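Colleagues,

For the teaching module next term, I've prepared a clean inverse folding example: a structure given as tokens, and then the sequence designed for it. I'd like students to try predicting residues themselves before seeing the answer, so please don't circulate the second half yet.
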């Protein structure tokens, strides 16, 4: 519609439809990837969503160097068509099938398509069945009363705070205004070339993060990501504050490190962690609310970025994002549980305040290797 539109109203209608469809994908795709994966590769598949988002950004950047916006709309159809056709042949999530139909041939068929020949399908079937029966016993369906349950309201709060932290790190404000940021910096590098370098680094970092997330865990990557935001945005703000002539390379370096930091933590993990901590009967509501809130925050940040710069100056805007990122690190340390290697049942027990030992990765924050701790101290005060 946008590619052939001859009036402004048709362009707006096309963008509204595109935005609606994108919102659905953002809510469903990470959840689907988590539900079809095994615990061993759950982190890698969960970050797959963000990996292809970053690839899409570079994809559009490269074609945008040579094509007009109407052709970019047509180019954008290609991955959408591939996904639409490809999903016809994909199995439904075994977890969803078990919740809807119970132990049926559909669940067995889906698992056989998704697992290798030597997988313990019978064991997984029993686990899915037990989970579904427990979920049905605990709830006949989602209602507002469910928010009284700690294993519902805590995941809801964590999911939405992480979505807020993701967008108010300033990532989309930076990506959407990267050319003007480079032009204002006085860098001798062509803004389009610099943008391509930054976005390519984002793809490489997201893929790298996906490869290490199941080894290091989610929490440590979120912390490292937030610290990276604080440092790079703080330095970038100082660059503009000091009006550092002769250092035109610094904004490029800062933004490369910034998007790398974002891509290993606050880029992919908020999307995937929703499916790792939310009980099945509340998944739809929590995921939908998180997605809607994410896009609302993205709209506010990108729409008001220019106003923020006018009110706080350019350096003040970046320092504001750095301050919010510092808050995101503190929130992660205090309230976000490690989900690596944990089942949904274990996460529900954690949120109910039961003491469950959690592997925080190769090292905890004190440097001790794989120390176990009681997560209820971290999350029950959310």
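(Answer key — instructors only)
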């Amino acid at each position: 519609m946008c590619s052939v539109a001859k009036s402004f109203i048709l362009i707006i209608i096309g963008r509204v439809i595109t935005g609606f469809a994108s919102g659905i994908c953002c809510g469903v795709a990470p959840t689907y990837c988590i539900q079809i994966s095994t615990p061993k590769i759950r982190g890698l598949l969960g970050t797959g969503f963000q990996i292809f988002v970053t690839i899409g950004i570079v994809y559009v950047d490269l074609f945008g160097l040579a094509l007009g916006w109407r052709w970019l709309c047509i180019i954008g159809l290609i991955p959408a068509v591939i996904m639409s056709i490809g999903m016809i042949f994909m199995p439904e999530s075994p977890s969803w099938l078990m919740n809807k139909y119970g132990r049926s041939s559909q669940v067995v068929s889906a698992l056989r398509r998704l697992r290798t020949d030597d997988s313990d399908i019978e064991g997984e079937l029993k686990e899915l069945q037990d989970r579904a029966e427990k979920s049905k016993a605990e709830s006949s369906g989602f209602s507002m009363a469910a928010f009284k349950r700690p294993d519902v309201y805590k995941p809801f709060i964590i999911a939405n705070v992480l979505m807020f932290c993701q967008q108010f790190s300033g990532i989309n404000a930076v990506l959407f205004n990267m050319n003007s940021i480079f032009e204002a910096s006085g860098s001798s590098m062509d803004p389009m070339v610099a943008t391509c370098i930054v976005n390519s680094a984002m793809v490489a970092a997201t893929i790298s993060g996906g490869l290490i997330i199941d080894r290091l865990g989610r929490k440590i990557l979120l912390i490292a990501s937030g610290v990276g935001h604080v440092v790079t945005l703080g330095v970038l703000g100082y660059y503009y504050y000091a009006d550092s002539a002769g250092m035109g390379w610094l904004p490029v370096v800062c933004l490369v490190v910034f998007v790398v930091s974002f891509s290993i933590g606050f880029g992919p993990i908020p999307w995937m962690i929703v499916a790792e901590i939310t009980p099945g009967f509340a998944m739809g509501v929590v995921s939908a609310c998180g997605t809607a809130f994410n896009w609302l925050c993205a709209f506010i940040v990108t729409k008001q970025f220019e106003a923020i710069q006018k009110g706080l100056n350019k350096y003040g805007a970046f320092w504001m994002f750095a301050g919010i990122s510092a808050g995101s690190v503190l929130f992660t340390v205090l309230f976000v549980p490690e989900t690596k290697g944990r089942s949904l049942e274990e996460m529900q027990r954690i949120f109910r305040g039961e003491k469950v030992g959690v592997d925080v990765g190769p090292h905890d924050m004190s440097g001790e290797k794989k120390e176990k701790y009681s997560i209820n101290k971290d999350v029950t005060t959310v």
